[in-house]
Specification:
The protein is about 60% helix and about 0% strand. It is elongated, with a radius of gyration of 25 Å. The longest helix has 24 residues. By secondary structure, it is mainly alpha-helical. It starts with 7 loop residues before the first helix and ends with a helix.
Length: about 180
């Protein structure tokens, strides 16, 4: 495989040996061809593989599977995904829907914790803030992160809960399910 110009990743997957072993084999056999150059991006080095990566990403194949099936490192696949993400908005759909689901789950869980009197602002609130921030970034909207070093008082949390209870949810919103 080394003579045919396979990459370290391809040899690792196919033969099941470590990078260190491949390096030793190369060092002990000076007649072997040099490793595949890493200086050129995949787009110019191997356009067919690049097209395969783009096609797989467009089909929403996970990065790890692309890595295993095509023998291209995860970092290279992620670089391609990041570089060309604006040209392929469908790549963001899975992450976006996961963030929406996580935001709803965290919100419902926080409301239940407030009702039970077991709300701890240092846990779910921070996760919710990070999730909302990433969701905004994914949609291309500006975000702002502010840190507060004091925990809210239980009374203010109860007031916030009462305010939430007074709101009328719009049709189809999951908040109605949390109220039940």
């Amino acid at each position: 495989m080394i003579r045919s110009g396979s990459t370290y990743d391809q040899i690792q997957v196919e033969v099941g040996i470590s990078r260190r072993t491949i390096t030793r084999i190369r060092r002990d056999n000076p007649n072997l061809p040099p490793p595949v150059p890493r200086g050129k991006p995949l787009e110019t080095r191997d356009p067919k593989k690049f097209d395969s990566v783009i096609q797989a990403l467009s089909s929403l194949v996970p990065v790890r599977l692309i890595d295993l099936r095509l023998g291209i490192s995860e970092s290279t696949v992620m670089r391609i995904k990041t570089k060309y993400a604006d040209q392929h908005p469908e790549w963001k759909t899975r992450v976006s829907s996961s963030l929406r689901w996580l935001t709803l789950q965290l919100t419902e869980s926080m409301i239940q914790d407030i009702r039970d009197g077991s709300f701890k602002p240092s846990t779910k609130a921070l996760a919710l803030a990070i999730t909302l921030d990433k969701s905004q970034l994914l949609r291309g909207k500006p975000t702002r992160i502010s840190e507060v070093n004091s925990a809210p008082k239980i009374n203010s949390s109860n007031e916030a809960l009462n305010t939430l209870d007074d709101l009328e949810p719009t049709a189809g919103q999951p908040v109605a399910a949390a109220k039940n």
